[in-house]
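To: structure desk
From: M.T.
Subject: fold request, one chain
Message: Could you run this one when you get a chance? Sequence is below, nothing fancy, just the single chain.
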Amino acid sequence: MLQVKNLTITHKKDLTTLVEGLTFTLSPGDRAAVVGEEGNGKSTLLRLLYDPAPAESYVEWTGEIADGGLRKGYLAQELSPDELALPVWAFCQACPAFEGTGPRELDRAARRVGLDAGLFWDDRPMSTLSGGERVKLRLALLLLDEPGLLLLDEPSNDLDVATLEWLEEFLLSCPVPVLYISHDESLLDHTANLIIHLERLRRRTASRCTVARMDYSRYVREREAGFARQEQAAGEERRAYEAKMEKFRQIRNSVDHQLNTVSRQTPGKGRLLKKKMHTVLSMGRRFEREREAMTASPEWEEAILTAFDPARSALPAGKTVLRLDLPELSAGERILARGVRLWVTGPERVGIVGANGVGKSTLLKLAARELLPRADIRAAYMPQNYNELLLGTRTPVELLAPSGHKDDITRARTLLGSMKYKAEEMEHPAAELSGGQRAKLLFLSMVLDGANVLVLDEPTRNFSPLSAPVIRGVLADFPGAVISVSHDRLYLEQVCTRVVELTENGLAETGY
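Reply: Done. Structure tokens follow.
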């Protein structure tokens, strides 16, 4: 069992309170999902619960974390560049539990996650494994240590649909409590039975934590219904208060007028009016106290995104956007698929699906290479690894306003503010921002460039389940062409006008 009592986490760099007064308990059978907007401290919370020492290099915390010596398994959101460069066997041997485990136990751990046990001794670099293979391998290594609690940071990232369904079954059948972060709304709907919602309100200056023992869909419904009831009650109280105050103002003005016009020859009447005014002012002070006790309008953290300008982003119907014919799609010396034909016309929104490792990102990079130099379109590329574009120590403002002109900087700051960036975060190196904040930054860059062809690799993967519906809405209304790789089932249904599956035999239309 894990018990967290009154936990408050503050960032040392800018003294931002990420989490305040968080209290919850995890027991076997609990599948607790941590949700919230980008940069709200979800990953920091998991790191702190796993091992406070590394997290204390950049945050301070108070409260109580009681785990009774519970053995914990932690799956980080990303592997470091050094880890990705390791051969698979060397990565496995770096796991303390791996060295002392016999072949039978290794085989059992591999079967639990649906892997071939031979992968433990593979010579390939970790970077060449598919996203699904990496997640399964890392989970298998965690299970070797027989943890009593699993802490999983975005385990659903980079997984194909089949592996996502496997992950759902894994979470549902896991005998130990699981605390996880995921941006996949379908996964949350199917697996979570406890929601921990981290919010930052009042222009991201105040923290609010909500713990609800229910599934995600019910939490969203009850949250929205609660806000609606609160807004209705607040509105009714405000209207009643205004009516009362209007009557009060009429009485006060009447008494004030009588005081100003009373004759000096009638001092008794003047005294009575002053006494009456004293009573009226006391009534006003009572009304002010009543206003302070009134139901407040609900506060929530809105995920606001800047929409594309239809005048700049529109494409003529039927315009040829891409004609890509590949006899072979390969990665190095490995042939991934043959006879790949990707034809796109404006304003189609194409989604590419397929098994992990089949070459979807490789195909998308080739498409981007064809499209980006074109003069007749304005193409923009959002890779799966944001560091391909967000390099160095440049800040969000510097990336959006490279000219350094005052007007460009002002516009960049305004757009970042619409995305809920704090002033301090606008000056942080982009590499230090959360995945979701970097994703928002790339979207803003596309908006500023007036792109009319978007090449997107997993566009919703780092957006919270509260931001993802907004992203989907923006892209569904995009008047240009979209060529995307996604495993987000709601994205494929709501955004894409055509979905194709990449197999070793090329691309084939699917039923999405």
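Reply (cont.): The chain has 19 helices and 17 strands. Let me know if you need anything else for the meeting.
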